[in-house]
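Review form for a predicted model. The reviewer records the input and the model, then writes brief findings.
Reviewer: anonymous (R2)
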Amino acid sequence: LRKAEKSGGERRIGALALDLFLDLLIAIACLFGLALVLPNVIAVYNLAMTQEGRIDWLSMLVTAYEKPWSDGLMVTGMLLTTLLPTALHLVAGLAGVFSGCTPANAKAIALLDTWDSIAQEQRRQVMKIIRRRRLWVIPAIVLVLIVFGLLALVPYLWGSTLADMLIWTALKGTAWSF
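Model under review:
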């Protein structure tokens, strides 16, 4: 935050926003990439196996579609784990930006420059301000949940669902194996 104040804070926040947006786009691409690559890997595996050793990934896909939070949790979890690191990055980045709104933030930053020479009471004040800054994680988490919720609704604009789009990706990507 100190660097942002000294070198054009708006530019630094804009760069952070761009980084977080690109991170989100990459996570969505990884989600669809996993939905494309994993069935192909299983299809190649099935070619090398006898009937007994084959993985019936189509039934797993149908189960994940029909019961994503119970019987299909393994497939759902596998796909959603691609979004977890991005959610954590978004929370950390947004909390960092929001923490600049903490009251007395500028005072704490000024005192950090003279940390060795300030009194114990001032150190306690700085530590209190720093602890308050951590509370910005809560609105950051809420905002990330809202963003992910809205992104899950985007496929509805095309009259579809995210699950339908992922199944379409998996089936079209493995059409060669049928």
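Findings: Residues 1-7 have pLDDT under 50 and may be disordered.
Further findings: The radius of gyration is 23 Å.
Recommendation: see findings above.
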